[in-house]
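Model: You mentioned two targets. I'll fold them one after the other.
Researcher: Yes, keep them separate.
Model: Target one:
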Amino acid sequence: MFLRNHAFSSRVEKNRVDPIFSTPFFEDTMLRELSIKNFALIEELHISLDKGLNILTGETGAGKSIIIGAIGLVLGERASSEVIRKGSDLCEVGGLFEVKENIRLKEMLTEKGLLSGGEEEFILKRELSRQGKGRCFLNGQIITLGMMEEIGNYLVDVHGQHEHQALLKPGVARDLLDEFGVLMKLRKKTEQTYRKFREKSRELEELRASEKEREQQIDLYQFQIKEIDQANLSIEEEEVLEKEYKVLSNAEKLDQLSQELYHHLYEGAGSITEKMALVEGGLEKIVAIDQTLKDELKELGEVKYRIDEMAIAIRDYRRKIEFNPQRLEEILERKELISKLKRKYENTIKDILNYRKETQVKLDKLLNSARSMEETTGEVGRLQEELARQAGKLSGERKIAGAKLKKKMEQELKELGMGKARFDVAINQGEIKSSGMDEIRFLVAPNVGEDLKPINQIASGGEISRIMLALKTILARADRIPTLIFDEIDVAIGGRIAQVVGRKMRALFSNHQVICITHLPQIAVFASNHYHVGKKISGGRTRTMAALLDKKGKESEIARMLAGERLTEITLKHAREMIREGQS
């Protein structure tokens, strides 16, 4: 049963054997297994791959490049229904990838909700129908073709065709050059400064955007505080003013009333004081005869005394009554000012004073923000200068690293049979970004008289493969893509150069899983795992098959590659010697 019916667990136990993928899982990051159904000449094919150098050999037209094409399909490359095997309606390709060490990929997929974070392997699967419809899957979950391609960029780098070369993608050349030049620490500092610069710049933009509104608010708050302060309010003032206003506004009435009272009490004919004197005289006469009303006489004397005091108090009060129209006008104006402030701000003087206090807090905050804008402007300028300095230093170091890489690359290309080739690192300065100010491209001129061009503009797949092999050899530790595939790498080479190519690919597998198609025995003898790809005709149809060779099978295949189908003891002996040398 193929991948579409495989219920893949979100977390697979280590060393578990899957019914589709027959070999146990290992801890290395690599393409572990490939299943192909109804793709081109392949009816159904299952290949178990391993770490190290995986070599695919076989006669021309057997389907080796078809297998590489199938890998490209599961990596998200564009394809049409024409790749579907004749007589079939559906093409299916699936790959089992071990990703335990691929932290960057796992973090990306976890952030997008496609992994839980604990997976050590997953299955990518692609379906194409005759009707032109296609579906992509990650662990049985449907994903977009774009997402499949993005995942593939973390997993496999194919050389020999333009479609899936990570080194041709934006930013990758810069990353590799920085790794080669040991510049990542300096670049990280530049990234940190750039991030701070952008944050402060955004903060300054926000402050500037609200500056006019803030200035208007400051003016309003300052006016309100000044208006309240100039009023010089006190909480008790309103009650005092009201009392004073009441007296002043009724001064004439108070004078008249107090005059009348004084007249009735003391001055007028028949006043209370006069009548009480008559009463007092009568009581004295009675008491002189009869002591019975003696106490009443005494009390009357006290009352008369109190009335005299009352009359004096009223007289004195009347004398103090103030007729002051100017003061009355001042009070009226003051009362009007307080009423105006109450209508404008709050209902009581106490509330107005509280409003003033709150407004002062707001004003202080706005004034501080104005100072903050000044400080932020200075900080942005400082960070801009620091960023320019760091980016300039990084650019200078990149030029030095680029010159070193150029020298090493041309030496590597010479060893790979491209002695006339030129290599250069083009560094063009532009706007400063998080990675610095440089746009970086790797340029190559394979032959004398040719202009330096980006690698993807070189026509020969064999030249591309050897250039990539040279780059990979130098940048092996810097390159984070776990699986490298070389197709057509042996075009137009042979003998000693082929042997050099083989040794360099063998050296790569300490950092990568390497898959290579070759027609040359000088390369094939370096294989950690050697696969023979062949075809047979059955029922009038051509079918592609692949098998992992054992020791004898490998010897026979190398002998066939040396001398053709007629194997002799001499060619077998030569093959064994070449294998022994390649594995030493």
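Model: Target two:
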Amino acid sequence: MTTFDRQANNTQTATFSMGCFWGPDSRFGHLPGVIRTRVGYAGGTLPNPTYRSIGDHSETLEIDFDPEVICYSDILTLFWDSHDAVKDRNYKGRQYLSLLFYHNSEQQKIADQVKSKWEKKYNKQIQTEILPYTHFYRAEDHHQKYFMKRYPKALEEVSNLFPTYTDYINSTIAARLNGFVREYGLLTDIKKELEFWGLSDNEKKILEKLLASIRW
């Protein structure tokens, strides 16, 4: 089955919270090496949270990435560079906290190293809670790839490539375009990157035609 996803021999997952999840979804989704993104809720105890009933969870981004292209430490550096993690963010309960969830001991070690390096560089103390990963609850569909929804014709053209809307949300091309519409990267960057996605010739031609035909 055609997936149009970037292929990777090995994938890892990064999970973190840094305020409203719409922005981080586009900020990290455009990065080469990121395969897919999804937004949701994590860090709390309430079962099955929703946006209207988030409980003690925080808005969270989860990404799957290829460590041969982008390393976990680079992701964390961008994470701390992209939001204010030195102030108290508990102004609306835990919804917009700065949280970092490590999936294994290696990620925990890297998180501590990057945090220490960042604090020494800026002479500030990071307030991010660094916690073991336990569970991630996927947010409602209308929060996924949020900024693409501002371009309904483009959204329709891209999503029509996939058998289900969930497949569209989980796709690499959706992650890239959701970043592009927020002025992260250029369409030419995406076109060049297609060469390294491991796509079939037909899949590559379909995406190239799509990128050329969309009118923003």
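Researcher: Noted. Anything on target two?
Model: The beta strands are 12-18, 34-42, 58-65, 91-94, 98-102, 129-132, 136-138.
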